Every structure is written in structure tokens, then in C-alpha cells.
Amino acid sequence: MASTSNSTSSKIITLRSSDGEVFEVEESVALESNLIRRMMEDDCANNIIPLPNVTAPIFYLVIEHCKKHAEMKDNKEKKKELRSQGEELLKSDPHTYSNLMEAVNYLDIKSLMDLTAQWLADFLKGKSPRLIRELLKIKNDFTPEEEAEILERNRWAFD
Amino acid sequence: MKKKQGGQSSQQGSVDSILNLPEDVMRYILALMPIRDAVRTSILSKEWRYKWVTITDVVFNGKCLMAQSPSSSAASNDVVFNKDILIAQRASSSTYEAETACAHVVDQLVSQLIGPIFKFSCMFFSILSSHHIDRWIMFLSRNHGNEIKEFRLAIDIKVSLNNRGKMHWYNVPCSIFYYKELRRLELLNCILDLPPKFKGFHNLSVLYLAACISADDIERLISECPLLEWLKFIAFEFYQCLNIHAPNLRYLELDGEFRDISIKSSPVLTNVSLNSDIPPSMWNAHGSPCTSIQFIGYLHGVERLALAETFLQYLCIDIVPKKLSATLDHLKYLEVDIELNSTEILAILCILRSSPNLEQLKIKYCVDDEGTGEGLLEEEDDLSGEQVELYGVKTQFDSFLCHLHAVEVEITGLAMLLDLQFIRWILSNAPALKTIKIYTNVYVEAETVSRILKELLQSRRASPQAEIIYLGVLGHHEVSY
């Protein structure tokens, strides 16, 4: 049970992931999601809110990062730390990253959208194409001729 | 949060999973990267080949074209791209070739984009002739004139200097004034002529100009932007009078020579910064009395006010009144640069007397090269009657410093006796003062610093909790005295 004793006064929202798992989340956290906010405004508040596009492990990650994000608000150090965590996740598990990114997009959580998008932007920045391919499991399907043509087209970017 | 079932562990795919991200998410991510890195994704795979061409922001600065970014060389494991391909700019021998290569990059890039362009930003190219910029502005007018929201252009001043050493500014084509959807416009180091048919920027909220523009044109430009919230104007010419009509203005920063400034109906204006790096003595012959001090009196809602460089001297050209025409009830933060010392203090006092709720005061002493000499110490002899009263024993203080809790003093050059007296006067008159923070620059000797601190520590304090903190040399905090 993650809802802590000091926040017992806040309302609890019940959500169900696509794989049938049920989550109880504090209202303040759940309302970070514009999708859930809209659903609640449409009066689903007393029922279990279904999230057909999000699996339990990914939803767990989303909640975790929502909480971290709330904690770091005015803390530069924590902000930096959170921003740097993307590198690790993208290196070890790009699949989970893209699931997380998709869930954040679906749930429409602005703060996490900024964070997770920045993760990939930072990750791609300054890495050689070969390294990016290797880490993200991208298959280079260009012929050498095609590759040369692309390099020629935007030479300045590949120096 | 309660977890009632065990979840499946995420499957690690063996294929490129990033590719499945929705298109708008991908565009959003690419927009967060420098344009060079976005273009580089085209080499990853066929699927990635044209992802970047949907970007809507074209952001270049001189540096990103001219040199390899240090991060890319550090992280690069890929020999192919470093060994064999020579960048055109680097290989070129003449400035002309380098310039052409640079311009070519921008041309090539925009020709590959397939979507709308919302943002075009070209900052500080060091070697670009105006016809290239003309071409881009025309291109944007023709193809993206109804959608572009942000346009930023900064010409390097070095380019603006022609070979005779005379300033030669870039003349901005008037088609830019027909970008109807602009939210933000920045034009630095240009000449601007407003076309007679200019209909206004109805959505513009940010305007930053460093330009040669006539008084009529700048006034008309500002008044034709009804939603303008943020205005910074660095004027290259002398203005007898600048009338600002901007009902939604929140932030105003003016830099240059303005004999008079008048502002009508800006009820939400809260942040004002006025700078000038030319002492008024250089144009004192312009006749009619200066109304700058009255102007400050009109800023009823201002919360933060900064008077930088020599601007304070403008306030002192005529007789400084004891109080402003109105009370600045909302002023919480005041920042002033003091250059010549004594008379400027009268202007500060005038503002202080009119700002009953001031909480923070920052004073920066900027002493120019001549000012650093011993001579300034003698200024004490020229004190007016009011100053004598101010520094004297019989200082009469009303309630005007009662909310002041933080003072910052930045001392550059020699710390003068008179300055110290002003700070001592604040110490002995501000009952709620918590801190006085002091910085110095590298030219202030350790001996002087310890003398200042000693004198201040011995001064009488109206607030028992007032602390004097020396924060060392500005920008060199590792140096401690």
C-alpha cells in the first residue's frame, strides 16, 4: 500500500489496467493525467476507471514517476537526477521506454510527457548513428549507395 | 497505490520499438533536439529516413553550423562519419565559400521539410551577407507566411561593420511585417522600416528589437500589437520622446537614449528595466527638461524596477524631487547601478521615499576607468545641503524603509567612503533588515574589503537581526578573503 498515512485525507481513485489489475491512487496523483481528469468530469468518479491502453507494469512506472516529479518541483538536484535516468532506461530497455512514453501520451500527463520526451532527445543527442542503432536495436537496411546519398544530402550534420 | 496482482515483466523486443511511437510524439521529441541531431536520425534506417522532415522548428545559430559540437565528438564511436567526410565550411579557403556553404545548409534543410514551419531562428551567423537572409525571409513569406509563429534573427555586429569601420546594419525586408500569426519576433542589429500598409501583429506577445527604427515606426509597431506582453527595445538612435501604448504589457526593458518616455494605460506592467550606457552629459544640449523621473512615477503597478548603467543619471539631470508624483505601492524589488556617486543617491532616495513596501534593494557600483582614481573620494566636498542632512546625525527617517529585508551590494572598483555611508545609513534606518550581502570584483583589494566590512560591522543597526554577509568576488566564489 503506497498511500501513506500523512495523506489519508485525500480521496482515492480506483483504476484498472488493460490486463485487469486494479490500482488505488490518490486523487492528486491521478489528476495529473488529463485523460483521467476528463473521465472524472464525465462522472466516472465512483466507478473503477478502465485504462484499456496501459498494462500494469507500465502503469506502475507512470505512477512512480508522477510521484517523483511532484517531489522534485523546486529541487534542481532531483530534477537533474530524474532527467539523467532516461539514459539508463533507454540503454537497458528501450521497449519499456516506448511503452511508458505511449502510456504517458495516452494518459495525457504533461509533466511526464516533457520528461520522457527529453529522455529520448538527450539520448539521441551526440551519439553516433552506429551506437544508436546498436542500443535501440535498429537494423541498418540501407545499401552503401543509399547511405552515401543520405550523407551527401546533409553533409554538415554528419561531420 | 495498491497492487493486487503481479504484473508481467516487460518484454524486451528485438526490433526497434521507438519507431512505434505516435507521429506527434516523435515530432515533439525531435523538436527538443538540436536540429543537427534531428537531421542525423535520417541515417539510422529506412523507417527513420524521413522522420525528421516533419519538424516545424528551424533553429540555427552560427556555432552549430561552423563547428562540430563537442558532445558528438566525445560520444562518437563511428569512424565512418569522422574520417571521410569533410565539412564544406572547414575545407573552404575563403570567407565567401564558407558563407555560401553555410547558406546552402539552411537552403537545403528548409527545402526538405514537408510540414508547416512555426519557428525560424537564425542567431549570430558570423559570415552571412544580407541577400541570403533576404531569400529566407522571402521563402517564409511565400510558403509559411500564414503559419509562422516565431521569428528570431540576430546579425553578428562584426558583420555589420563594413570595411571602413562604419556601422552597416541589415535592412530587414518589409515582408516580415506580414507574418500574420507571429507570437514572438526578435530582430537584433537591423534597420527597420515599417511599411505604410502595416496592419499589425494581432497575436504578438513578445517583441525584442535592437534596431535603427524611427520614433514614429516603433510607436506604431508597438501600438499595433494589442496582445504585447513583453517588450525589449535597444535603441540605436536618440529619441526625443517615446510614447508606449501597450495595454497588456507586463515586462518592459528599454536600453538607449530616451529624453522622455511616456507610457499610457499599461495596468498590468509589473517589471520594468531601464538601461543606458551613454552618460547624459554627452547629449545634455538637447533642451527641454527631462521627464524620466516623472515616468517612473507613472508606473503605478510596478513590482520590480531596475535602473541600469547610467540611467540613474538621467533622473538627476534636473532637480530631483523629494518624492515621485505617485506612490509605488507594489514595488518590492529595486535594482540600481551607481556610477558617479553622490547625486544619484538623491534619485534613489526619491524612489525609496515613494516605495513604502520595498523588500529588496540591489545596488551595483559601476566605476569606469577614470572613476577608479582617488579623485572620487573628494566628491564628499561637494555635498548638497540635503546630502549633508542625509549623512548627518539628524537623519530624519519616516516609514519608508520599514519592509526592506534584503540588500545586495556589488562593489566594483574602489569602494568609496560615500558609498559606505549610504549603506551605513540603510543599516541604521531599516528596522526589518535581515541581510546585507556584499560582492566585490577582482579589482577590489582584500585590504579594502576588510576595511569595508569592519566599518559596516561597527555601524549602528536599526534591526537587531541584520546580518552582513560577504560573498566574495563575483563569479570567482572560490576566492575567499
TrEMBL record, chain A:
<dbReference type="GO" id="GO:0016567">
    <property type="term" value="P:protein ubiquitination"/>
</dbReference>
<dbReference type="GO" id="GO:0009867">
    <property type="term" value="P:jasmonic acid mediated signaling pathway"/>
</dbReference>
<feature type="domain" description="SKP1 component dimerisation">
    <location>
        <begin position="110"/>
        <end position="157"/>
    </location>
</feature>
<dbReference type="Pfam" id="PF01466">
    <property type="entry name" value="Skp1"/>
</dbReference>
<comment type="similarity">
    <text>Belongs to the SKP1 family.</text>
</comment>
<dbReference type="InterPro" id="IPR016897">
    <property type="entry name" value="SKP1"/>
</dbReference>
<comment type="subunit">
    <text>Part of a SCF (SKP1-cullin-F-box) protein ligase complex.</text>
</comment>
<feature type="domain" description="SKP1 component POZ">
    <location>
        <begin position="11"/>
        <end position="70"/>
    </location>
</feature>
<dbReference type="InterPro" id="IPR001232">
    <property type="entry name" value="SKP1-like"/>
</dbReference>
<dbReference type="GO" id="GO:0006511">
    <property type="term" value="P:ubiquitin-dependent protein catabolic process"/>
</dbReference>
<comment type="function">
    <text>Involved in ubiquitination and subsequent proteasomal degradation of target proteins. Together with CUL1, RBX1 and a F-box protein, it forms a SCF E3 ubiquitin ligase complex. The functional specificity of this complex depends on the type of F-box protein. In the SCF complex, it serves as an adapter that links the F-box protein to CUL1.</text>
</comment>
<comment type="pathway">
    <text>Protein modification; protein ubiquitination.</text>
</comment>
<dbReference type="InterPro" id="IPR016073">
    <property type="entry name" value="Skp1_comp_POZ"/>
</dbReference>
<keyword id="KW-0833">Ubl conjugation pathway</keyword>
<dbReference type="InterPro" id="IPR011333">
    <property type="entry name" value="SKP1/BTB/POZ_sf"/>
</dbReference>
<dbReference type="InterPro" id="IPR036296">
    <property type="entry name" value="SKP1-like_dim_sf"/>
</dbReference>
<dbReference type="InterPro" id="IPR016072">
    <property type="entry name" value="Skp1_comp_dimer"/>
</dbReference>
<dbReference type="Pfam" id="PF03931">
    <property type="entry name" value="Skp1_POZ"/>
</dbReference>
<protein>
    <recommendedName>
        <fullName>SKP1-like protein</fullName>
    </recommendedName>
</protein>
From TrEMBL, chain B:
<dbReference type="InterPro" id="IPR055411">
    <property type="entry name" value="LRR_FXL15/At3g58940/PEG3-like"/>
</dbReference>
<dbReference type="InterPro" id="IPR001810">
    <property type="entry name" value="F-box_dom"/>
</dbReference>
<dbReference type="InterPro" id="IPR032675">
    <property type="entry name" value="LRR_dom_sf"/>
</dbReference>
<dbReference type="InterPro" id="IPR053781">
    <property type="entry name" value="F-box_AtFBL13-like"/>
</dbReference>
<dbReference type="InterPro" id="IPR006566">
    <property type="entry name" value="FBD"/>
</dbReference>
<dbReference type="InterPro" id="IPR053772">
    <property type="entry name" value="At1g61320/At1g61330-like"/>
</dbReference>
<feature type="domain" description="F-box">
    <location>
        <begin position="15"/>
        <end position="49"/>
    </location>
</feature>
<dbReference type="Pfam" id="PF24758">
    <property type="entry name" value="LRR_At5g56370"/>
</dbReference>
<dbReference type="InterPro" id="IPR036047">
    <property type="entry name" value="F-box-like_dom_sf"/>
</dbReference>
<dbReference type="Pfam" id="PF00646">
    <property type="entry name" value="F-box"/>
</dbReference>
<protein>
    <submittedName>
        <fullName>F-box/FBD/LRR-repeat-like protein isoform X1</fullName>
    </submittedName>
</protein>
